[in-house]
Specification:
Length: 282
Amino acid sequence: MLGLLLLQVLASCLWLGHSEVVKSFTRCPQFFYEDKPPNDVLRPTNAARICQVYANKYRFATLYDRNRRIPVYSAYKYKRGPGDRYDSWFVEPQLINETYDKSMDEEASIIEKYNITSAEIGLSQAIDQDYKDAVGLDRGHLCPSGHQNGNDSKWATFTLTNIVPQDTDFNQGTWHDYEEVKMPEKTQGCDTTYVITGAVPGNTYISNGRVNVPSYIWSAACCLEGKNPIRAWGAIAKNERNQSRVKIIDLTELEMRLAKHYNMKGVNLFKNACGQKQASHP
């Protein structure tokens, strides 16, 4: 009987989700080509790096904008496979207080555990209420559940630190087609595909100015055959109902467009542009 109880406790621990707020992505470099995250050009002033973990395993990585309460990007390996969607949403305890658990958890559980309010949780991140009255907008995944394999990896994507307000028609239309039709086509022959999907901040907000509505959604992919990069591409579209045609472009053009949208120079998403540039030597 005691043995059965111990097994039940162990099983419940293994099902806990975790997301670890870290100073750098050295804890979860495997989601970036050659372990190298994008340079800091896209990083906002009040950013949080999150190694997203579920069932004691890293699933993807997120750079999160605490001020706008949306992710800048999520990085992952493309591994399409079967599994179910999760039926609720997680938030990040360590964005509230760095001494809190690493466990990705639902709001009600955090409120009970730490005797805090939803408003206190929402000081550092989006919460469920922010999206409830968002007319015409979906909770758009940057790391989509459809690009993951198995329940654990799919469920880990249902954290609001991986979500942006995305136009409903766009999310369920042309962007869905890119994720579910174009990506399988373009990854043919790829043994490993590294993906970074992000959101360019916009000028509008939902939830009384709390959560930014992105102006553009973009994605970049780096395809490897064995350990050798063989191609890379980008995709970008306006986050608008009538302006949502997804443009599939080369990686260099995507980086140039992002530099323009962010009014910055030198955006580098993948090391050596996913093998398109020769490595520099001292």
